[in-house]
Design brief:
By secondary structure, this protein is of the alpha+beta class. The chain has helices at 33-38, 81-86, 107-123; strands at residues 5-14, 18-27, 42-47, 55-62, 68-75, 90-93, 101-102, 105-106, 129-133. Helices cover 22% and strands 41% of the residues. The strands form three sheets. Strands 6-3-2-1-9 form a five-stranded antiparallel β-sheet.
Amino acid sequence: MSLGYGASCKLVLSDENWYIYEYTSYNINLKNYKEAMENYDGIIILHKDFFQKPKIIRKKIKRPSGKKKWIEKKQYDELDWDTLFKDGKIVIENSSHCWDTSNGIDRYALKLLFYLEIKYTEEEIIPTEFGIFS
């Protein structure tokens, strides 16, 4: 069963170094949730370092037939979130409908960042529109 919390974001501007998303977070248990779902007034600014390029690992494996075959795997380094925040490479301005914060940052903006990272590593494209619901 759902808790009724959600967030969504849209890419509004990008250049070779920065990506700017507008986002909203909402709680359908509150009266103004419809307005909150449509009002993208929060901002998430990400440096290109957030979207890391994968390392290509080539490995030779032995097949059951005895033949050897080369395979390639993509490996992403773990993001150093603290450094990205301290260096100003992740900047979040809370949505006006934010109701749950951690150290002054909207928790659902942080969840959006987490799922943006997962979506990028799975699809290898920078998401232009994205949403979560729990």
